[in-house]
Amino acid sequence: MPGGPVATxxxxxxxxxxxxxxxxxxxxxxxxxxxxxxxxxGVISGIKEMKDFLTVFGVPTTNVxxxxxxxxxxxxxxxxxxxxxxxxxxxxxLLGAPVADILGRRLGIVASCLVFxxxxxLQTAALTIPTFVVGRVFAGLxxxxxxxxxxxxQSECAPKWIRGAIVAGYQWAITIGLLLAAVINNATKDFxxxxxxxxxxxxxxxxxxxxxVGMLYLPESPRWLVKKGRDVQAAASLARITSLxxxxxxxxxxxxxxxxxxxxxxxxxxxxxxxxxxPSHNKILLRTLTGxxxxxxxQLTGINFIFYYGTTFFQNSGISNAFLISIATNxxxxxxxxxxxxxxxxxxxxxxxxxxxxxxxxxxxxxxxIGVTISIENHAGQQALIALVCIYIxxxxxxxxxxxxxxxxxxxxxxxxAKGMSMSTASNWLWNFAIGYAxxxxxxxxxxxxxxxxxxxxxxxSTCAGCWVFTYFCVPETKGLSLEQIDLLYQNSTPLTSxxxxxxxxxxxxxxxxxxxxxxxxxxxxxxxxxxx
Length: 533
Description:
533 residues, mainly alpha, Growth Hormone, Chain: A, two-stranded antiparallel sheet, 23 helices, 74% helix, 1% strand, globular
């Protein structure tokens, strides 16, 4: 997995001022939005197994051998509680486009947190299924907005030489949120009152408050400001991010590149949702479908089966302390993301996606094969299953987890970036919802259920093979390029030839303005030739 040439030339934060790290930290802070995403996703896995939660929202049963608390969640109710968040996030992600274009990336994130807090308040106060479900929907709207706006803000503000690592930090924050949820669930699970599940839910107010305060301090995206014609503010924002003077030539060079790319898009009229699905010189159709499908394939790796239903799955596999195993898998998820954040700039996006898909495919087939051939009493076999699941999680966390967000944040041209990212993120949540809703019916036993149990990993292994095929034919290598240079990459290469053309861009330090000036020069020569003739 060769790293390729080091990025050179102009770009946000390439050289920067004495305090250029301040700009990196400012951009990286926005990744805190991933805490909301990860924590809210992970908290439901634990609280739906708590005694008081089952007593309040479940139905009574006399089958205490299977359900020791005397209450259980039927598959229909469990599916609704778990997956309705993703239904809300789907619409929240779609709303991310108008919110990002109207309010801006920064204030859009602030508004998202307010919607999220409304959902948390309803869930905390709920004592009936309808109230809890409505709260999950509003929380989902907020999370969906954040999941669109945060990677967009980071991609537009981060230095190109470290953009992949910074946007990957969003996925790292998601894993930290999942770990925090597992730890807090484990700390409150034995409480005999409503605080057992209300405390883990209410803690989400803290995450939203921290994100709001931080975003009010951060600068707006300079690319959004340029799109709105606010060039003076764009220069000030870019100067703050890079710790350079707003009159510095490097600032003006970067802004000129952004203006040139935006003007070319606007001159061609590429800015509507319909334009996202039209073949064009800029290959916007390919880019839109790549964004939509890479987020779909990320969900189809089966990772959220572990984090939504991991506690239940481990209990049904005969593991005595499933809550602690859940914490262990979340710790693996957190720390395995770190090499992915480093590797995305060292080895590139495309290479890591291919290796990650292959590793996950092998692990999931092994989990399925071992799971169907051993008994619950086979402790060595159960330990092997846990080990393979941890390797699978590490493979996801270091590749498909962060890189899907990196790619969707950087492959779209500015004029349709908000729309393209919102549809890509909505795809993530649509499949999240579908998998979250269908899994209990696929895994659980009893009337109306498929009872697959561990056999479900045969499905996840097959979808990981699909991830590999998709990456090979559809995902270009974008490491080290500015967002505007990625436009040139799509215009002049294919995913299979992208590595070679990328090296040419970096070696010759090609920019959008250079291409435009070259075209204008040739047009001028052609006009002179025609006049002579």
